[in-house]
Amino acid sequence: MAYNITEVPTTVFDGQKPGTSGLRKRVKVFQQKNYTENFVQAILSAIPEGAQNATLVVGGDGRYFSDEAIQIIIRLAAGNGVSKLIIGQKGILSTPAGSNLIRKRKATGGILLTASHNPGGPDNDFGIKYNMSNGGPAPEGITDKIYKITTQISSYKSADIPRVDLSQLGTKTFGNFTVEIIDSVDDYVILMKEIYDFEKIRKFFKSRPSFKVVLDSMHGVTGPYGKRILVDELGLPTNSSINNVPLADFGGGHPDPNLTYAHELVEIVERDSYDFGAASDGDGDRNMIIGKGAFVNPSDSVAVIAAYAKDAIPYFKGGLKGLARSMPTSGAIDRVAKNLGVEVYEVPTGWKFFGNLMDAGKLSVCGEESFGTGSDHIREKDGLWAILSWLSILAHANDSNPNVGLNDILNKHYEQYGRNYFSRYDYEEVESDKANKVMDTLTTFINDKSNVGKTFDGYEVAKADNFEYTDPIDNSVSKNQGIRIIFKDSSRIIFRLSGTGSQGATIRLYVEKYAAKDYQKPTQEAIQDLIALALKISKLVEFTGRKEPTVIT
Ligand code: G16
């Protein structure tokens, strides 16, 4: 069936600037006439290889407005000469599964529909981002180009293709344009089976029948993936996978796997004595790992995974090419890198910064404090990958210690490397001018060079700056990536404004303190003096009126 293409006049919408990972706004903003069309047209016009004859992967976390957005993408893709769209059934593709598909099918790129961990539903958030042919989020050069186009757009090209039923698997052809609806889960499961020794994990579960596992998918996209892997492949009981039906509004919850928003999981794990509990976010790229009496801080998680990777995960049996973390993430992984004799890279917040290093063969395992962990198997962080990594580590450690649990793994790690106590305080939805006052105060502090060498509440300032990154592969420079105050004992205070919120400003305060021996303290006790100092220097309470953060991790 052929179709007609119309050039539809439109006008510019302000504020279509992609943040840390795509454009995230309230659903009602995306629902405005031509708003989504403008942004999709800007993406199509910014594709480095050109939209003409492109193959694009499309899917997302199934949140409210996904179906509408996909129909718009279908019409505009055909209108712009794209030759093929590969779409996850019912529009469902976890972000890692999308990244995998782009790579596996050698697609030109992908359009992923998610606002990640932000709540969904008619009154909450929607999001759109573009991923490149390597499967990774578009770098700043491309997102800047997309933004520029949105500021100049006067029309978009749309084809009169009828609504496509996204629930029907198979291929539909419209003239030169094809839409292929595929199973959302199959290819991802194949990839995981290539990376991990499923048989070894199965044997571990058999040898420890009392070892209890639960994955809370928080009604995000991970449900069908997690259920397939844990229950169908690894033989765990069906109640090992909870909240596993993706819902357009995530059941009214906030699909962010941290101790605050994943409280249902935390309660179940403590009440029913689960050895291993995990949660993932709306689009399945974030993870949290806990157990009864155990919490794996994400900065520690990536360090431990890196330390065990070669021995516990078949994909890494040849060794690691390099490690990396985002700047605010603790230096725990740096210590592992030193021990392994591999390079460790410090990049700005945002998974997109890892891609170049991976493509250049310099990076195997990386992570962020924001519950993101992953490797060069794809170009996105990967929640289930982290969960399978930890299960593989437990299975491996179980060979020598048949009662091993999460705390044993963590304590052994701290014993060897010391502990980088780390915590993040989030102040969400602060009025922008108040947040700016905090950041201005901090900027004044770092610009006053006389502060270096001065001692504040027992901490001597060694360095104070706004983090700037030069990509070692393409030499692109990213400035203003977070204010750092680094002390002589290697403790750090970091402030950033989040780039993923959709309302007001979110101030993130990160603190880190290293202890070579004294690793058994509760984190908040270990870092409380640094938090007090950070609040004093930034005058955060004075400017924002917030006495407590919204979330502590
Ligand atoms: C995105 C990025 C991550 C980043 C996180 C937090 O994650 O992919 O790399 O660490 O945002 O960013 P911010 O501190 O600017 O809010 P996600 O899971 O939201 O796509």
UniProtKB/TrEMBL annotation:
It holds the Pfam family PGM_PMM_I. Its cofactor is Mg(2+). GO terms for biological process: glucose metabolic process. InterPro entries: A-D-PHexomutase_a/b/a-I, A-D-PHexomutase_a/b/a-I/II/III, A-D-PHexomutase_a/b/a-II, A-D-PHexomutase_a/b/a-III, A-D-PHexomutase_C_sf, A-D-PHexomutase_CS, Alpha-D-phosphohexomutase_SF, PGM. Its EC number is 5.4.2.2. Keywords: Carbohydrate metabolism, Glucose metabolism, Isomerase, Magnesium, Metal-binding, Phosphoprotein. It is an enzyme of class 5 (isomerase). NCBIfam families: PRK07564.1-1. This is phosphoglucomutase (alpha-D-glucose-1,6-bisphosphate-dependent).
